[in-house]
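#onboarding

Welcome to the new folks! Below is a worked example of what a typical request in this channel looks like: someone posts a single protein sequence, and someone else replies with the predicted structure as tokens. Don't worry about understanding the tokens yet, we'll cover that in week two.

Example request:
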Amino acid sequence: MFKILISDFENALIDTEEAIPLSTMLAIDKVRNNNISFGIMTDLSFRTMIEYNKDFPFVDYIIFLDGAYIHDAKKNRALFKKNIPISLIKKIKKNFDLYNICFYTLDFCNCTKKVIDKPNARKIGDFKVFSDFHKDSIYKIEIHAKSKKEIDEIIFKILELKINLKYYIKKNDDYFVELIMNECGRVQAVEKICDIKKSCLDDVIMISFSDDNIDLLKKVGHSIGMKNASSKLKKVTKEVTCSNDEKAVEKIIYKYLIKE
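Example response:
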């Protein structure tokens, strides 16, 4: 019996109109009334997600910033948070200042040189003012590069400096390296929710669109890929469902968690 349902928010729970269908909200409500916790992964800001959850609370846990911050929505407090110490922030800034660096707080993606095309992105003015104000609230860093060669140079420098951060290499429209504290991660975030529920990853059913969740999908009890996800993600899931515009999360709920 599954005890936890995890879903991506973007491209999974919400449709192309950026709304959660009412029937899906009602299905989630039934799940939660059956003592099954519902958690979401999101790249949106804290403020945006709280707005979604305000009028019709539908979620128990929200995982932000690759697991560096987990919000307990029922208790309205952090279940877990691990910011990057200001000493490491300054070290990254000093050694990688030639690159465009993004410093993530809960509500902003802050860029040092130019604004990138991301929600809530804004350009930093004076770095000292910014870092002093956010010294305890920066949870993730992105170092953007222009080529694979630059990525290799960044990774070499990180290892040479012995910077105690976990890193991931990504490629979208450009190359970048993501940095979070070693204690953080998407797998670790769901494990922390499991600890609260006195359960384990085998008790988790997960629906995902994002390739960032591939490692997690390999470890949960039942993994489900969205039809609109990448072929890479679909290869590691036990099942592929319909798209977000076809109420995929709702259909999985009624298939595995609720008998109509």
